[in-house]
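RESIDUES AND SHAPES:
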Amino acid sequence: MLKFDVQNKRFERLTQGNFKQEHILERYDFQSAIVRSWEQIKHSLNIPDAYLVGQEITPHHSVQNSIDLLAFDSDDSSIIVIELKRDKDKLQLLQSLSYAAMVATWDREKLISQIQHSTVSDSEELVDLINNNPLSNTVKIILISERYDPEVIITADWLANQYGLDITAFSVSLYKLEDDTFVNFEQRLPLKELEDVYEKRGLKALKSDKSLITWDDVLPKLAYPFAAEALQYCLETKEGDPSRRRFVGFRRNIDGFDKVAILVREKYLNIYLEGKPDNAEELLHHIFGNIEVLEWARGYSFKVDNSKQFQILKTWLGD
């Protein structure tokens, strides 16, 4: 990895290190950093709609080992098992598969109980989403490590391609520049170029029963003053999905972005943009001011949490 010194028009090489050399521990440093930075990390892992359920979770009463991190993907109501290793470990895949098999036996009550026991942030919103949507029969697996043995990647690829298991592997690289430490997540499996080639077998998402909940049920749970106006504005364009609290495909072809989706959260609106036009972040900062723009696999996202930003959003999307 190179640092671009724009002023002097030259590149400066960063020194590559590793967790062991930097005395970074697997659980107490790396895992803790992911938990504390979940909103940023979930985009790097290509699960932008995921909630963190907890860490060091026992998957079954018959075992003493624990899952490093457990998450819930509100996009398709699936549970995600995340296993971390500081260095390569041939048992990482087997361990994650056994945990996924155990978690697959959980019902809705078990998952909610775990969330309440973990006291995660946004737990009420997460429990509400789980209660209003059937759990998927898919359990996703995400592997994160500095390095992988070829056997792990080859086997995971075979399981994903031939049997439809949802397995993703990321390598994490560490770089140093003076006193600063940089970390880069890179998807190793599936290859981004081949993601659309995989034909998932038996992983059809369960459809929500939209009759169980309406936007009138959602509105009292929203904690921002422009919530009613926001829902009315969105409903003028699309019916949306109140059970998952989202308006998918709300707008298309806006300033180079292919699609715009609006997710209605308890404390803010989450705006997801598909597409990566040139200077996208600069454009969004120019329009919305000092907002945090996060990049994910297919585009960008940002939050709208005050009335001024919402009025700007309406103007941008077409009031």
Remarks:
- Residues 193-205 have pLDDT under 50 and may be disordered.
